[in-house]
Amino acid sequence: MGMYKVYVLFFFISTMGFAQTLEESIYVATETFISNKSETAYQTLKKHMRFFKNQVKTKDEQLALVFSQCHQGFYLSENSRLYEATLTYEDALKRFQDHQLSSLSDFDIIENCLKPLGNLYIQTGDYTNAESIIKQYTFLAKQHKNTHHQVSGAINLAKLYQTIGNHETVLKLISNAFRISKISHKQKEHLHHIKSTSLIALNQYDERAASNRLEKPSTFQKERNNYAIALKNGNYNDALKAFNAAKVFLNDENLNTREQAKLHFQEAQLQHLLNLPDQALETLQRAIKTLIPEFNTNSLPNQAHLYAENTFIDIFDLYAVLQKNPEQALKSYDLSFHVSELLQDNWTSQEAKIINETNNRIRSEKCISLLFDWYQQTKDKAALSKALHYSENSKASTLKAIFQKKMRLRKFPTDSLLIQELELLKAQERITSLLIKEQLSANRASKINDLSRQLSGISLEIKAIKPAISKKHADSKNPFPLKALQEQLLKDNAVLMEYFYGETAIYQFIVSGTKIFLNKIDLNSTSKNKILEYIHLFDEASIINNDIDLFTHKAFDLYKFLNFDAVSSHKNVMLIPDGLLNFIPFETLLNSKKKTTSFSNMPFVVKTQNIAYNASTFFYLAKNKTTPAPKLLGVFPVFENTKKQLTYSVNEAQAVIDETQATLLMNNEASKANFIQNAPQYGVLHLSTHASSGNLTKPANIDFYDETLYLNELYSLNLNADLVVLSACETGIGKLYKGEGPMSIARGFQYSGAKNLLFSLWQINDLSTSQIMHAFYSSYNKTHSAYNSNRQSKLDYLQNEDISNVKKSPYYWGAFVYYGDITKPNDSIPLLYILIGIILILIAVFLLLKLKKSHGKIIAGISN
């Protein structure tokens, strides 16, 4: 039967070829599909196109294929098959660009391909590709003076920024778009609607001002605005009235399945807010059946029914809220997580994943909250392990992903697909860094457009090889490895404390070698201020010294609030911070009240406990082989005779060279190029320079003698350092993303391959830094344990009688935190000493016995 179908298809194409050229055949097949769109017609067209793709040679034939693919993409998009639609449009765009078809005809690639592709990226959460594509066709439109497409670009870019909550940028874009001449009436309506939505979100909407403008909102637009305002203000009855009034203007026949499902969800959301749970559940079932027509039960679908469509996430999250049974609620949330993973499979940039992580975090908190309450009622320990699993899944996902890719490549070092994937990811970050530089400097539109096109091309290449990699190296989903974690903690004689910083509570997990606990710390404006106030004590050196009593009060108060005393009996602590807790130096907390102004006499946590930090338990368990005596590369730009001069950096360099056999790049030798070239050959990297946490537009960065290295370029490096010491300002600070942590220089080094890191949480360049580094390397040279040396350097500093009390403020020694393994000092040396000791004892016993024997013979001889 299969061979018969192939023969019929071949016969059809062959006979068609006698009458028409290949180009004409492609157009005829496509027009036939357009005239009668159906799934059967689409499948027939697909069969034709599989044959045509292998035959096309000329540019005209390639253009005919692009024409066909654009119509296929439109059909798939209208039928909510967003993944297939995206791939189809991407292939069409690549074909159009690779064969330079823009010179062949006036085919409108913007209208037929770029605009719908950009919209698809927004719908599927691929925000970085969406921004790139929209900016590309906006640039093309400006080049060709096509004002219609320029405005379309502004509209779609504004929709993108609105989706991710960047409303201020939306308003600027809309304002600039209104300055473009010859805007159509429909486009003006779009612009006004987008503007109104962002103004409502910012609580800046003025209905009277909107009504007084030349272009008054339509009745439909007015009702949509009324709905949004009422919903935001909690007037749910008014919101339902406005929703129903606006719905009258919508014809289901003109809405695709996705739009229909979203309407059902919005209605169910209002029913829930109006305390009508049964009606809300019925409406959600209609939404599910709209997206899955073959699904006919009144329960939840299984994962096999689902596909990459973010409307499912809205539906299942609300479905979970409506459940009284926590197990059913968790099952529904798990479906949301599954769809989120399906969407993530199509994203190629870490930026897109990080932006989308916020919703997963909110969901994770709800799951942990359910399991916390469940445990309180049942005392079922399985609930605690599952809660920790949700917490872990929400932490450092992109960092873990790149780490896993590198681990896989180390396991299969000759796998060409894995090598290609990593090279593409590095190129992606390198070009992203160049793009950021262009946007920060001259803003050359042509260069920015070229870099955006390169990024889009790399994204397509990554997607192209992904199926083959997934097939060859299938990732298995395993439950949280609690047993392995506890075994490792027993080996390290340590306890793990992990925080999950949510919207309404901080959840604290404590895991020892045999037990697991979960505590809930209520979070409100007062408790948030408690955390922020402590962090801000370290903004300047004078703050603590000007009011030592205030510091001691806040340091002990925060110690108790964060329930750190729950692990006070454990010397070794593996700490996984979260949210604002990433910026707290826990070693500086006080574990008891003590009335003193002498810092060396204060009961700092560092005196009784040794803390290693990590972004996730994944990194704690992912043990790396360490080099017994790794080579050290020191980078010291110093910046002599400039405003950036680092006076004490020379002392620090001397401290490093005194205690280690290091290679130093000093002054102009400490260039960016020298660092990039030499760094991969060293096991320890020490950088003493300026760094910045960045701002809203500029990413975190670190200075070399001649150039600045931005975060994305750091991502593109391939380092294998056992330890990176960042003796620079703010290397642990950066824009904070929920779950992923700060986008800091320290994270950049970890992303590039560094296993263990020592970095700073605030600005400090002082003699104290060189003294601490001297003590650190003195200890590290003997023990090869950065974990212990970090603590020892602080203890030595506090006990140094030559240092004044003012300089013993935790501001001067508390900035450096260690992220990495719990490595014990002298891990190999004690064993050697024991062996030597045993040998010496055996030799001594042997000599003693021999001496006794000889002595016996002498005595016997005398007696005789």
TrEMBL record:
What residue stretches are annotated with the CHAT domain?
A: 570-821
Highest taxon of source: Bacteria
Which keywords does UniProt give here?
Membrane, Transmembrane, Transmembrane helix
Instruction: List all membrane-crossing ranges.
Output: 831-849
Pfam families attached to this UniProt entry: CHAT
Coiled coil location = none
Against InterPro entries, the record matches this protein to: CHAT_dom (IPR024983), TPR-like_helical_dom_sf (IPR011990)
Q: What is this protein called?
A: CHAT domain-containing protein
